[in-house]
What we know:
By secondary structure, the protein is an alpha/beta fold. The protein is about 40% helix and about 15% strand. It has helices spanning about 15-25, 35, 40-45, 80-95, 115-125, 145-150, 170, 175-190, 210-220, 245-260, 275-285; strands spanning about 30, 50-55, 60, 70, 95-100, 130-135, 155-160, 195-200, 225-230, 265.
Amino acid sequence: MQSRLPVWFKQELPDSSAKELQKQLKTNRIHTVCEEARCPNINSCFKQHTATFLILGDRCTRSCAFCAVKKASSRLVLDLDEPRRIAQAIAAMGLAHAVITSVTRDDLEDGGAQMFINTIEAIRKISPKTKIELLIPDLQGKRESIKAVLEATPDVLGHNLETVKRLYAVARRQADYRRSLELLKFVKEFNPRMITKSSLILGLGESNAELMRAMQDLKLSGCDVLILGQYLCPSIKHYPVKEFVSLEKFQQLEESAKEMGFLKVLCTPKARFSYQAAGIYEELNYA
C-alpha cells in the first residue's frame, strides 16, 4: 500500500467563484460526481464554472471498493424533479457541454434509464444548444434500457470499464467485466456514429499485460475515447493504492493506446472520465 501522494497531485485551492458554485448547487439540491467521488480536479473545474452532474440521488446500490460515493443503506426513492433542476443549473451556468452521470440503481427495473432520458429532455427544453455527454452504469446489461437511452440521442455515450478483468473480484464485485464491454459494443452496433468513451483507473495492482489486454478489449468493443488516470484512495476503509504510476509510464501507455487506434487518448494522473470532455468532443466532432 502506498499513501504519500506524488508532487504532481498538488491540488488548487478553491477561490470565491468555486465556493459560490458549490453553494448554488447545494442550495438547488444538485449532486455532482466532483464532490461525491472526491475528484482531484474539483477546484479547478469549479473555478471554470463547470461540473459533472450526478443523477438518481447520491447513494449507490453497489459497493465498489475504490469508490467514495455513499452506499445505500435503506430503501431509495426517485426525485422526479431532479432533471428540471439540473437543466436549470446547466442553463444558468451557460454550459455548452454538460456531462451527466449517475449512481448505480439496481433497485430500479430499468436501472435508471428513464431518468437519464428525462434529464436529456429537460436539458434540451431549457438549454437546447448544450451538447450532452452521458456516463451510464451498466443498467444490468438490459439492452432495452440501453436502447431507450440511445434513442434519446445523447451526443456522447460513455461507460467505464474501470479496471482489469482479474481485479473485478476484489474491486468491482457486483459488476461484470464482459457485461461492460458488451454494453459498449451494443452502442456501436445500434449507432455506429455515436462517440463512445471509457476510462481505466491505474494503481490497483494491475500488471502491464493485464492493462494492455483491457485496452485492447475496449478497442475491440468499439470504444473511441480512452481515459487513463491514477487511482486515489478515498479513505482507509477503501481499496488501497498499490502503485503511483510514473509520468513516464503514463506517456508510454498513451503511445500504446494511440497505436491501438483509439480516436482520442487522455492519459495523465489526474485524468477522469469528464476531464476536458468539451474539448475532446469538439476535437472529434470537427476532425
